[in-house]
Design goal:
By secondary structure, the chain is α+β, with helices and mostly antiparallel strands. It is built from 5 helices and 12 strands. The termini are far apart.
Amino acid sequence: MAATSTSPSSSSLSAEQDALKALTFQRLHPKTYLERFLSEDLRPDGREFDEWRDISVIVGSISTADGSALVRLGSTTVVCGVKAELAEPELDKPQDGFLVPNLDLPAICSPRFKPGPPTDEAQVLSDRLNEVLVASGIVPTSSLCIEPGKAVWVLYVDATCINYDGNAFDATLLAMVAALKNTRLPKATYYEDTKRTICSRKIMEPLPIGRLPTSFSFGIFDGTHILADPTSFEEPLLDTTISVVIDENGGLTSVMQLGLGIVGGDDVLEKCIEAAKECWRTSRNSIYGTS
């Protein structure tokens, strides 16, 4: 009796059917799907709980901007451009310029976002980014003064996510800091007799960069699992997201939490902070080196 064998085509068909079943189950029962992976100490994309996705930073890619950067965090891709404009300072802060960060999450970057005005998520992330940049003092606003009470620089730090696969906050902060570090402004002089500010493109000056904040975000799933660098699949299933911001010396700048209260409280926070510092020590401390 001849032995039966499975043809390559039938094996391929069987593999495709299994993949389709898994994809269907993932869409219909996402939480159970994730729970089954985590019970095996693994995540759906093959990473361990404390493993981060690869990062790349490319600066100076937008020739029309005063500074720019493109960051890839796994599949999440964010491009950021800095545009400088002249303005009058506020009356109560005559020697301070302005830093205006903004993040756009367009419909093209993910099916979860729809065309139209900025989403609530984009506005919340923009506010959080502004808080971090102000708290870190990355660019002292006093350094943006051209003439007290007369003229200052406004830096519009506009980031756009062109592919969304979770953790846009970390990727966008990386892009904004790298773009600011890449920024060069023309030498500006205010002339009292004409009440005008003249810029010389022959002399381009870098920004006086202070601290360099880097964010490390963690998702808390089911009150027990701490997942570093959550993906777009994991994010909607999380109880809480914690973002730990570390400066260029490895010091703690801030900790932000979105979502429900944390089961385990301070112990979970301490684990996230230590994991963030360890990641900074082992890989992220030189992330801006090329910018």
